[in-house]
Amino acid sequence: MRPALLLCAAVSWMAAQSSVVSGRVVDDSGAPIANARVSARLSSDASPVEASTNAAGAFQLRVPRDGRYLVTVDRAGYFRLQDRPVDIGAQNAEVTLVLNPQREVFQNVEVGDSPPAVDPAQTVRDQQLSGTEINDIPYPSSHSLTNAMKLMPGVIQDTAGGLHFHGGAEYQTQYTLDGFDISDPITGRFSTLLAVEGIRSLDLLSTREAPEYGRGSAGTLAILPETGTGQFHFTATNFIPGVDTRGGLNIGDWTPRVAVSGPLIKGRAWFSDSFNGEYNRGVVTGLPNGQDTNQSWIAGNLFHAQVNLTPANILYGDFLSDFAYQAHSGLGPLDPDSTTTEQRQSEWLGAVRDIYSWSGGGVLETGFAWQETGSHGIPQGSQPYIISPDGRSGNYFSDSLTHGRREQFFANLSAPIVHRIGRHQVKFGTDIQHLDYTADVRRTSFDVIGLSGLPLFSTSFTGNGNFQQSDTALAFFVTDHWEPMRRVAIDLGLREEWFAAIDHAALAPRISVAWSPFANDHTKLSAGYAVIYEPPNLALLGRALDQQAITTPYTLEGVPETPLTTTFLMGSHLKAPRYANWSGGLEHDFGHSLSAKAEWLRKRGRDGLVYAPEVASATVDLQPQVLGYGDGGTYVLSNQRRDEYDEAAITVRQSLGDQHEWLASYVRSRAASNAVLDVSIDQPLQVTDNFGRMPWDAPNRLLSWAYLPFPFLGKKWALAYLADWRSGFPFAIVDQYGIVSGTVDSHRYPSNFDLNLYIERRITVRGYRFALRGGVNNATDHRNPTAVNNVIGASNFLQFFGDEGRHFEFRIRMFGKPKI
What DSSP letter does each residue of 386-412 carry, written as one string? Predict the structure, then answer.
C-alpha cells in the first residue's frame, strides 16, 4: 500500500504545481477554427506542450508551472501565430487567439508565416488550393473555377471539361459550398458557376476522410466562400473586353468579375458578394468561317454573410444565382452548327447555417438549404439528324427540358473533449436530402448512314418523355478522433446510409491512423481503410421512365428489316454501389517551407448501378467482364458494374513568402471498369466486351506550377507558369454499324502538354492598386487534340481535331485602395 500512497501523493503534488490554461482560436471575424494546433513553451529552446482545438475552437493546455509562455498556433489555410507571449497564472483566465486567413495581399504586409506542411494530428489526405493560388496560377481559361480544380494532383479534366477526381466519374465526387451539397441534383456533376475571387479555398478530402463526408466515392471537394473583414475591400478583374483577330477584328472573350466584402454591422456582421460574368465567342478550329463560333454568356452571383448573434452563436447565410447560355452547344469539327443545340441553364441556392457552442466545449451545427436547377436544350431546326462515318449533319433529334431540386438538412454535435487513455473528440451527426427530377423530352428520329451512303439504321421514339423521379437519402454517423499519445492520431467512425429510391440501407466503417515517429513532427506516416456507399443517380434511374427507341436495321442493299425496340426497366432488390478504399501516405517537412508527400490509393467498386441486357441480368453466375450491349432489346438496371482504380503519387511543394510558391507532382494511375461505355436512349452503341480503361484514364501525369519573384526586377514583378503533361486519353474504334472493334478503348490520343508563361506587374495609380498580367498559353504550340474520327473506313479515320494552338492573353485586376 505504501508505494501506492507515495504515487498518489506525487500525482497530487504535480497537479498542484501545474496550471491549466483554457482558450479559443478564432478567425478575424470571430468564427471558431477547429483542428488548430496550439503549443506553449517557457522559452524558445524548451519542449512545448500541445493541444488541438475542437469544433468550437476551444482548447486546454496543462503546463508545468505558472509563468510567461510563448504560444504558437498553426492551421492549414491560415497564417501562423508565432510565439505570442501569454501569462499563465493561478487565475487561469481564458485567452482568445486570432488567426488571419491566407488571403491575397497586394502590398508587403507582415501577417505571419505559413503553417507547417505536416500536421501530426491529421489522418485525412487533404489537398488544398487557396483563393490566392487560384488567382495567381495561369491555368487555361483562368476565369473558370472548374478549370482551377485540375491544379490539384490526381484531378483530371477531360476533353469536354468534365472533372475526374482520383479515377472517379464526374458524379462520384461530392461538392459542398459552405458545408452544403451543391452537386447537380439530377446528374451529380459540378455545374455551379462561381467567381474565383469569391472563394477562400478549395479543400479536397480524397482518402481517409471522416464519416461526416459520405456520398462521394472519389472524395469531397469543400468550397469555402470568402468572408468579409472589418474593412471594405473590392477587386475587379477583366473589366475591359479583349480583342480577337480570329475571323477578322472582333470583340474577344470578356470575363468580367467583381468581388466586394466588408462589414454590415461593425464587429457583429460581415458580408462578401462576388459576381462572375463571361462572354465567349467560342471559336472552334477546323470549321468554315462564319460557322466556327459557339457564342455563350454566363452570369453568376454569390452573396455570403456572417452574423455573430452572440460570441457563442454564429449564423451564416448564402444566396446563389446562376444563368448560362450557349448558342451552339456541341459544336466541333465533326459536328457543324446545324447539329448543335441551344442551351439555357439556371441555378438557385439559398442556405442558412447556425453554429452554437457551449463553454464546456460542445458545439451544435445545423443547416438547411434549398437548391433548384433548370436546363433546356433546343435543336437548331427540325431536319433529319444524320450520323455518318465522316461526322454528323442535319438537326439534333432531342428537345429536352429538365428541372432538378434538392432540399437538405444536417445537424452535427461535437461533444466536449474527453481525456481517457489519451484525448477523444467525439462527433455525431445526421443529414437528409430530398431530390426531385422532372423532365419533358421530345425526340424525333435519327439515321445512321454507312460507308456506301445507304442507311444502316433508322431510329424513332415512342412513349411519353414527360416523367418525374425522386429520392430521399438519410444518413447517420459517429466518429471519434483519438490521440492516445503524442504524435499518434486515430480516427474511428461508422456511417449508415439509406436510399429510398432503391430501399437499401448499409453500414460504412472508416478507420485511419497517423504517426509521427520523430520528436520534431517533421515526418508523418498515415494509412486508412474506408467503405463508401454511393447514392443512386437520378439521371440513371430516370431512363426507366423515359421514351423507348424503335430501331429499324437495313440490309446492305438498303432494304428495311424487322424493327427492334430498346426499353429500360428498373431492377429489383437493388443495392447501393459500394466502394472500398485502401490508402497510405508519407509526408516530410524539410524545413524552409519545403515539403514532400507520397500517397498510395487502391479503390475497388462493386454493386455499381448499370443497365444490363435482360438475359444477362437474370444469369446468376454472370462474369462482370462480359457485360456488353447489342443493337436493341430490354435493359434492366442491375448491380453488375465493377470499377478499379490504383494510384501512386508524389508531390513536392514550397512556400517562398509574399504569395510566392511552387509545386511539382507526378501521378501514376490506372482507371478501369467493366462498364466503360454506357448505353442510353440517346446514345446507341454495340460492344461485346465492355471491360477496359475509362475514357479519362491517364496513366502518367507530370504537373508543375509556380508564382515566383521575377529575377532582378524587384518585388512588384512576378513570373507565373503552368506546365502540365499527361498521357493521351483512350478511345474506342467502331465500324460503320457502330460496333466496337476489338478491345474497348484500345487506342489513345497523343500525349497532352500545356506550358503557360506569364509576367505580372503590380502598380498603384492615384491610390488604386492594379495588377497587369500578360503571357502565352501553350507556349510550345504543342498539338492537343480534343476530337477524333473513330469510324473504320471513313475518309479521315484516326484523324485528330480540335487543337487550340499557341495564343496570347492579357489580364487586368483592380484591388481598390490599401487600408492597413
Answer: EEETTEEES--SEEEEEEEEEEEEEEE
